[in-house]
């Protein structure tokens, strides 16, 4: 086991800067998830930790040891990819043991480690099959098994579940959580999937364009996003944002006139420094923060309804045409085209300045 430290790590391909100075402290045994839009550098950063990409500048330490110049095979990391990358001509057993045999580990030791991993992953009955005779989920389990037998200090996963169908993803997500609980190995996991990030992570790292936007526990990022980017990225459906202007404040509450609602005012409680009168702001309300008991009111017209059974996502528009997503339990009573008075909990609403930074 080991901690992982990145200090101002950068990566350029030619003269294009891709990773622009990332510093991170990942504790021994922690499960850290990298999220961010496509192309922001998640895989590149993971590959730099694994040694598959070299580091242009900055320091990478694993278990207190500087790793920049250390060969990938000597870093004590094992990586699992989206494309399982199994050898088609080898059986499951051979695939799982290959790296160890290649490294000259004794046959009996390899067999014992492969058997132990097979047991953890429930692969015992499939050991003599070739990959083409396995389902996607089974193949991914073999790929994980191949990583486990190496007894890595750090697991690196790059979107390991994105080739699987929805049901299998849920199943494998739970397996990975259990695996981490059992083995306690430091894990860095890249995903596009909100639910995977929220449920698996001890700590989420939100990346944008090669930089860290915010690091924190899942609910910390959800409750207290530092800016509109993180607020919009964490949570699904995403947070609604409305343009407004500060009309007044009394030291604990800030009154905001909403341009998208013909200047209608809402009053938002704040804890920190009050924004001055006239300041342009953005009001953020999550779809799930609309409730009948809410003390804020928005007048809307319903555009579309998505009934999911237990709850409904109502898509509505403001006077100006701004789109609003509302999560409601009363979707069955609503009709497309109707006027809708949407109540929201002002204590849950967040305020941001024009540049996107959070006003607390
Ligand atoms: N070998 C390379 N040469 C040049 N540019 C590269 C190379 N590898 C990656 N890039 C660029 O670096 C950026 C980050 O790529 P990366 O694969 O890390 O993104 P990502 O966050 O993993 O995206 P995705 O979510 O789509 O997997 C992209 O703009 C990509 O085009
Ligand atoms: Mg990627």
Task: Provide a compact summary of the structure.
This protein has 360 residues and is α+β, with helices and mostly antiparallel strands.
Mean pLDDT: 95
What is the ordering of alpha helices and beta strands? EEEHEEEHHHEHEHEEHHEEEEEEEEEE
Number of strands: 20
Q: State the shape.
A: elongated
Strand order of the largest sheet: 6-7-8-3-9-10
Strand content: 25-35%
Bound molecules: adenosine-5'-triphosphate, magnesium ion
Let me know the largest β-sheet: 6 strands, mixed
Count of helical segments? Answer: 8
Return residue spans where pLDDT drops below 50 for at least 5 consecutive residues.
none
The secondary-structure class comes to alpha+beta
End-to-end C-alpha gap: 38 Å
Percent helix range: 10-25%
What radius of gyration results from the CA coordinates?
24 Å
Account of the 3D structure:
The strands form 4 sheets. The chain has a 6-stranded mixed β-sheet, sandwiched between helices. It is built from 8 helices and 20 strands. Strand 4 (57-62) and strand 5 (65-66) form a beta hairpin. Helices cover 24% and strands 34% of the residues. The longest helix is centred in the middle third of the chain and has 18 residues, at 166-183. It binds adenosine-5'-triphosphate and magnesium ion. The site of adenosine-5'-triphosphate has 10 residues, from helix 1.
